[in-house]
Amino acid sequence: MQIIARAQYTRMPWKNGKGLTEEVMAFPPNSTMETFDWRLSIAHVGEDGPFSVFPGVDRSIALLEGEGLQLDLPDGGAHVLTLDGVPFAFPGEWVISSRNLGGPTMDLNIMTRRGRCRHHMRRHIHAGSTTFDATEQTLLVFRNAAMVETATNAIRVEELSTLILERGESIQIVPQDSSLHVLSVELEPTA
Question: What's the mean pLDDT in 98-108?
């Protein structure tokens, strides 16, 4: 188990220059936007506009803060991200633009390079504690602070920190507020 505090994230402009990203982690280490197998980041969306295009990459996105983010899709349809909604998966080739619904938003993004890795993002909201058993490498991003209990100790994880579980690891998460809100990303190498 490894914890990455938010203060350790790398801040950088978006690929298209229209916003700011906090890169949580990319694999392999020191990979670029053209060479990562996977990349987890938090995007700050301050204004309406286009998403960056990433050919050969699969993406999932989930809202972390804000009243909502509307995605205008290539087929003319739309999808609205909400704070309790299911993450939205889409191919990186799609030309998408977004509109904030009521002010700036923040969202969690996972990108995996097709043919090297695939992912599955889920949102978990619980009134009480819950157990995570990692069947694959799993990244947990905490929307609020919580205590993480292992077989040997308990560690406080702060809001918007990330916890990395390797396959076979198991933890208990105890909320510090009224409820627990975590986004999980399971990563599976395909190459």
Answer: 94
Instruction: Give the confidence band of 14 by pLDDT, cuts at 50, 70, 90.
Output: confident
Going by C-alpha positions, the residue among 58, 162, 43, 155 that lies closest to residue 104 is: 43
Measured between alpha carbons, how far is 60 from 28 in angstroms, rounded to an integer? 19
As beta bridge partners, residue 13 has: 20
Q: Comparing C-alpha atoms, which of 61, 119, 116, 57 is closest to residue 92?
A: 57
Helix-strand-coil split of the chain, %, nearest 5? 0, 55, 40
Please tell me the predicted confidence (pLDDT) of residue 122: 97
SS3 state at 47: coil
Gap between the Cα atoms of 70 and 81, Å rounded: 6
Q: What is the pTM of this model?
A: 0.93
Judged by average pLDDT, the poorest of 12-16, 121-125, 181-185 is: 12-16
Residues of the chain with CATH 2.60.120.10: 7-115, 120-189
**120-189: in CATH 2.60.120.10:** yes
Alpha-carbon span 117 to 123, nearest angstrom: 20
In whole angstroms, what is the distance from residue 2 CA to residue 111 CA?
20
